[in-house]
Each structure stands twice: as C-alpha cells, then as structure tokens.
Write a structure and sequence with these properties.
The protein is of the alpha+beta class. The protein has helices spanning 47-104, 107-113; strands at residues 6-7, 14-19, 25-32, 38-40.
Length: 123
C-alpha cells in the first residue's frame, strides 16, 4: 500500500483512486484497471475479503454463463438434428420415388402430370 494507491490482491497491479461523476478522484474507492476489481475503504470488509467476494462473484457468473451456453447449444443442436433428419427423410422419399418411377419409365408422366392433368380423371 502506498499513500494514494493500493496493490490489487488479485493480480498485483497498482490500484488507482476511482474517478467520480464530477471527474474528481475518490478518496474512498480504488479500482484495478486490469481486472476491474474495486475496493472501498468505507466498507467494513478488508481489501482481501472484498477481493474474495469479487472473485466468488466472477466464478458464479462464469458458471451461470456456461450453463446458459450449454442449454442454448443443446437446443440448437437438437433443432439442427431435427431439421437434418427431416431433410434426409424428404430427400430419401423423393429419391426413392423418382428411382422407382425411372425404372418404370414414367418420369415424363410425373413431370407432365402438373401441366397436362385432365380434370375429368383421364390423363
């Protein structure tokens, strides 16, 4: 500790007085530029206790973000799998139908069905 500065207990960087809204330096709050830890001299906890609380908060937030990411990816990959399955089924059905029709030699009839359809039931 120096007269105007504190050493960050998290990463050992020099902590500078925080700048207030009126652009003056705070005499009761110090912040670390590298890890964003803020220490308040008016708080009853020591600098080490405040740092421990800060780190615990970061760890909890990290865990929450990982859970949220896992849930999102499970939904994404589930939806992706469903769509890929549906696409494969449609491709297999279409491929199978056209292969069967091609063996019978009636692909032109399938293509013409949409344009030359006789509404009386005769094709």
């Amino acid at each position: 500790m120096t007269d105007d500065n504190y050493i960050c207990p998290i990463d050992g960087s020099l902590m500078n007085p925080s700048v207030l809204a009126d652009y003056t330096k705070s005499t009761s709050e110090y912040s670390c530029r590298s890890c964003s830890f803020r220490y308040s001299t008016t708080d009853s906890a020591t600098v080490d206790e405040q740092a421990l609380g800060f780190v615990r908060g970061l760890v909890a937030e990290h865990g929450a973000l990982l859970r949220e990411k896992r849930i999102y990816l499970e939904r994404f990959y589930g939806k992706k799998f469903d769509l890929e399955t549906r696409i494969r089924m449609i491709q297999q059905r279409a491929k199978g139908d056209f292969i069967q029709e091609a063996k019978c030699g009636s692909i032109p009839k399938i293509i013409q069905y949409g344009t030359d359809y006789d509404h009386s039931g005769n094709t």
